[in-house]
Specification:
TIM Barrel, alpha/beta
């Protein structure tokens, strides 16, 4: 299982300290902030994951500066990321975000629309669909936490193929990572439990 240290709004110095403990995978949500920090950390071999809502005017930077995207849910964004991925870089790894909680305020494709999004992404040679991602509604009860993660795992099992096994399940954060792991998470996105309360980076 991969641990993604979510470092948005954390300083480059904080990332450097965590990296010194052996952590190599970091997740960012604000493109320009991430690019600035990447420039300060070139002496570390870090893997950068973009996590969160994708804005059309940021796809070029995302395509150029990240190895992974968690949260792709728009076919138009998929095409832009493909077209803007620099040819000297390997295909961009993507996890498709599914709105498993049915919240109107949350991003993510509806489960019924997942096959269409998978088909669009499969036609993009500069993208590599690695799995599914979810950001479900907050819950304190473990059973309630596990239900949306189980739903995401079920969708993976339903739509995985030999050509696209959807081997990655990106789910679970500081408050619900145990429930996510119990339901088969292969990537957990942890911020507060690693860095503490967020402080604006300088």
């Amino acid at each position: 299982m991969a641990l993604i240290a979510v470092s948005k709004q954390q300083s480059a110095e904080a990332i450097r300290a965590v990296s010194g403990c052996g952590q190599r995978i970091f997740g960012e949500s604000y493109v320009q902030e991430a690019v600035d920090k990447q420039a300060q950390l070139l002496d570390f071999a870090l893997e950068w994951h973009f996590i969160g809502r994708i804005q059309a005017n940021k796809t070029r930077q995302i395509a150029a500066h990240f190895a992974w995207v968690h949260g792709l849910s728009d076919p138009a964004h998929a095409r832009r990321l493909n077209d803007q991925r620099p040819p000297e870089l390997p295909p961009l790894n993507v996890c498709l975000q599914v709105n498993v909680s049915g919240e109107s305020s949350k991003a993510g494709v509806e489960p019924a629309m997942l096959p269409e999004l998978l088909a669009v992404c499969a036609a993009q040679p500069r993208l590599r669909v690695r799995g599914l991602m979810a950001l479900p509604a907050a819950a304190t009860d473990e059973l309630a936490q596990r239900q949306p993660f189980a739903a995401l795992r079920s969708l993976r099992d339903q739509f995985a193929t030999p050509d696209c096994p959807l081997e990655c399940l990106s789910m679970g954060m500081s408050d619900d990572l145990e429930a996510a792991i119990l339901e088969g998470a292969t990537m957990v996105r942890i911020g507060t439990a690693i860095f503490g309360t967020r402080a604006q980076c300088s």
